Please model this.
Amino acid sequence: MPNKKKKRSWIRARQIKQQRAQDAYLVQREREAERKPRKWPKGKILGTICLFTIVFVVYGAWQYQNSQLPPKIGDETTNNPPSTDPAPTFSLKDINGTQFSLNQHVGKVIAVHFMALGCHGQYYEINDHQLKQLKTVCNSYCGSKPVTMVTVAVSTCPTSDLALIRENYGITWFLGNDYDDEKLDIVNAYTKYSIYDGTIVLIDKELNVVQVYTNFTAAETLSSKIYQLLGI
Model:
């Protein structure tokens, strides 16, 4: 009996010793893990890199797309002037090289259309509408009545496709880019009239601004006002 008890005691002591050694080993491993920087799994690293790449590409594409859009025209803080106000004079070179000067058209009713263009000729829906209405009005008055029309494009890009726009809409009136001289002097001169992209400004025979249309405008509305200004 004493030998059996002694053997069991020895086995128990060895088990305790092994358990303590294992616990000490685990503690040591935990301490070493805390001291070492944690390494991400390769899959997680690749996923993170892919995510950052996608975000970078999308942001770059968004930036590029915005750079292609038409520039802003006008200042929302301005207010329309009195019904009759001397129109700021200006000159503009048509895309075919013809020079337009406002002062040379005294005695005529003049419609000035402001149109912002992005790179490669992008423009907003309002200008599609306004150009079609102006074409209808021009068919009725241009050449037969003392009426002059001019579209002042605003494009800061090297390529604005004005010639293609002229062809697509059958534009027979003056069409030029205010930024040809790298200045927006015409737009800046007319900002006091609360002009926006697509605005049409009507000027009477004495070169006074008499009407400013900042929204989608029907050909009938323009024709009625031009008819009144002509005094027919």
User: Anything to note?
Assistant: The helical segments are 2-35, 42-68, 125-141, 162-169, 185-190, 219-230. The two ends are 137 Å apart (CA to CA). The chain has a mean pLDDT of 81. The chain has two domains: 2-68, 85-230.
